[in-house]
Automatic annotation (TrEMBL), chains A, B:
It comes from Senna tora. Keywords: Calcium, Hydrolase, Magnesium, Metal-binding, Phenylalanine catabolism, Tyrosine catabolism. GO terms for biological process: homogentisate catabolic process; L-phenylalanine catabolic process; L-tyrosine catabolic process. Its EC number is 3.7.1.2. This is Fumarylacetoacetase. Ca(2+) binds at D129, E201, E203, D235. It catalyses: 4-fumarylacetoacetate + H2O = acetoacetate + fumarate + H(+). InterPro entries: Fumarylacetoacetase, Fumarylacetoacetase-like_C, Fumarylacetoacetase_C_sf, Fumarylacetoacetase_N, Fumarylacetoacetase_N_sf. Pfam families: FAA_hydrolase (PF01557), FAA_hydrolase_N (PF09298). Its cofactor is Mg(2+); Ca(2+). Mg(2+) binds at D235, K255, T259. Residues 134-413 form the Fumarylacetoacetase-like C-terminal domain. It comes from the Eukaryota. The lineage of its organism: Eukaryota, Viridiplantae, Streptophyta, Embryophyta, Tracheophyta.
């Protein structure tokens, strides 16, 4: 039987009591940022709950983790998680009855979500982006390495990744300025100007909870304990800039102009009912990547685009987190095998999540085959994104009578500066 | 005539009054970190100077920038720099006479450097590593692309770079744990274990002062205003891990196990007397990379290694910052051309600074030609670094009767965990 809260939550809402994702918000334009939990159409202000003394368990009593927003507060939340006193159940058990019976507190601490400003949910120390969908990798390989040998020998041996740019990670709703930069030379001189190939990438990302010390790797079978939860992510990409700069050190300015994440961190615990088997890996991974239980999550993913000339958005692609070849835990364990330290709030993108079907491809590079085919969305034709186009990613899991969702991750492309 | 301070400074000291580099330190193991300035064998405690009310100019009056260590304090320092009221001359003019005549204040604020613990001088938001020495690039290219076409077509058009890992940037003196990881397969299965090819990379790095807003590029002719100063940097590299993982997204775990920087940020202003012409660039750079005055700095660089079995270190290579093809300002302007935002404290490595001569190569990869040749340092033979080996980088400029130096950037390789 589905859990129910005294707060009315529509069955299609992304934020029933089974979810309770973590975020950071400002109730008023001039208030200070504070942590909150989404429930139905409301945000529960955790700073008010903490001030009211409701967090009286051994871990949260007198902790200021809900009063301030910084690296260490996430670290405390993560501690809860690590000790299997989950964030979700703590909030639920300590606040439900008191809130229900205390109208004044309810008034202060439950803020309508449409009234608040949502901010980045964590201070991101480092952002890493993986490349873990075999479908995305194979498609890129066919385009750029040729059909004979599209996937590199190393790809099946380790979760390939690169360091991304943390400073330009922005919250859903932030406009994305079309980057300027160089492209491959046409008549001897490189192209320079606004990128002609601005793309989206449909991704999800782990938010690191407890970190690890420099020099000490995380064991694969403990890796889940280091993941606080997941967000949706759009790794905006300028393909012309990216392809010209990328040899030999990888993507740089083709990516660093902006990366959008969704505001609510959905805990792994809330996703647990939607866990599914990870794909069989052949060749079998090395021991440090071999997990006792290897799982993915069945999260339906959608890309909608609202072309500049339309009032409505069109569905552009559907995919699923379960298509990942390398699991989230393999990604995290691999990241630390060399002793690299993760810190609370670090962001680990999955890489573009493409599926096996033509309509399950997670970026325009694949959908238009690098501009060879034109797409038509309700009559708007595109090879890459135009100024004014808005991209909206969403993700959700359908439970029995409820939905665990991620809300949306959206952004609009605006023109380059002159 | 050389400037002189009332504090005795030996002519070989790296820290005469002409330098006054910025750092962060703890006077006692249990004190809180605070900003300081190196002068001779002393550290001037800026928090004491500020508490004494000595910073009474319009910019620093009542500013708490010397009382706390965080992003915003560097931002204030940077403001000084941007307004051409330099950090160096502010400290010098406001403190010299008062300090000289106030024994109690001198006692409190001048701490012997050998008594303090030096910490990272800035909170590093993002770390980027460039690839700007043509000698290093050509040598790597000959090894891995072949002698026909060692340097890619894009290299002469833009300062190639990749995002590095900020979390594992450590202060000089921190041990570096030998990373574990995968290497290229030998009999079908990848090597796994402690890296067999741990290397150093001789680099310098810019520390960003004032940042720029996301979406707004920094003009090349204003780029110097965004550089607070320079440090020495050792970009430790595990060549076996790096080469196996690097296609197609660039270096990742082969780098992210540790990067060492020197504690003192030397301002561009202190280096100005050692400015020299940058190399002529052919083809000429695109307009956004063309600067009115294009300069390098004549900074002598040395690599010493103390092999595990020796008590003394040996000189292993000598190079010079002036060998850079792409200037520090071109690096910074390029980094922002796509709208990427830099933040105060960001670290921009130059890439390995190799010169044209066989003894001016900045890493073992080049010096031993990826292990083909063995080096002998006073009888200790090496292809790559062994556990217990210590690498000491240093840099200095020789002025008329004084030296502007960077101190040292050192680290010892210690064994992998079992
Ligand atoms: Ca990506
Ligand atoms: Ca390097
Ligand atoms: Mg991006
Ligand atoms: Mg490094
Ligand atoms: Ni930070």
């Amino acid at each position: 039987m589905a859990l129910k809260s005294f707060i009315e939550v529509h069955p299609d809402s992304h934020f029933p009591i089974q979810n309770l994702p973590y975020g950071v918000f400002k109730p008023q334009p001039n208030s200070s940022p504070r942590p909150g939990v989404a429930i139905g159409d409301y945000v529960l202000d955790l700073s008010e709950i903490a001030s009211a003394g409701l967090f009286d368990g051994p871990l949260l009593n007198n902790s200021d983790c809900f009063l301030q927003v910084r690296h260490s507060s996430l670290s405390t939340l993560s501690l809860l998680f690590r000790r299997r006193l989950s964030f979700r159940s703590q909030v639920e058990e300590t606040t439900e009855p008191t809130l229900r019976d205390n109208a004044a507190l309810r008034q202060k601490s439950l803020v309508p979500m449409n009234k608040v400003e949502l901010l980045l949910p964590v201070a991101i120390g480092d952002y890493t982006d993986f490349f873990s969908s075999i479908h995305h990798t194979r498609n890129c390989g066919i385009m750029f390495r040729g059909p004979q040998n599209p996937v590199g020998e190393n790809w099946y041996r380790l979760p390939i990744a690169y360091h991304g740019r943390a400073s330009s990670v922005v919250i859903s709703g932030t406009d994305i300025v079309r980057p300027r930069g160089q492209g491959h030379p046409i008549d001897g001189t490189p192209y320079f100007g606004p990128s002609l190939k601005v793309d989206f990438e449909l991704e999800m990302a782990s938010i690191v909870g407890p970190g690890n010390e420099l020099g000490k790797s995380v064991d694969i079978n403990n890796a889940a304990d280091h993941i606080f939860g997941l967000v949706m992510m759009n790794d905006w990409s300028a393909r012309d800039i990216q392809f010209w700069e990328t040899v030999p050190l990888g993507p740089f300015l083709g990516k660093s102009f902006g990366t959008t994440i969704s505001p609510w961190v959905v805990t792994l615990e809330a996703l647990e009912p939607f866990a599914c088997d990870a794909p069989k890996q052949d060749p079998p991974p090395l021991p440090y990547l071999t997990e006792k239980v290897s799982k993915n999550y069945d999260v339906s993913l959608e890309v909608h685009v609202k072309p500049a000339e339309h009032k409505d958005s069109s569905l552009v692609a559907r995919s699923n987190l379960k298509h990942l070849y390398w699991t989230l835990t393999q990604q995290l364990a691999h990241h630390t095998i060399n002793g690299c330290n993760l810190r609370p709030g670090d962001l680990l993108g999955t890489g573009t999540i493409s599926g096996p079907d033509p309509d399950s491809l997670g970026c325009l590079l694949e959908l238009t085959w690098n501009g060879e085919k034109e797409l038509s969305w309700n009559g708007a034709t595109r090879k890459y994104l135009e100024d004014g186009d808005e991209v909206i990613l969403s993700g959700y899991c359908k439970g029995d009578g409820y939905t665990i969702g991620f809300g949306t991750c959206s952004g609009k492309v605006v023109p380059s500066p002159q």
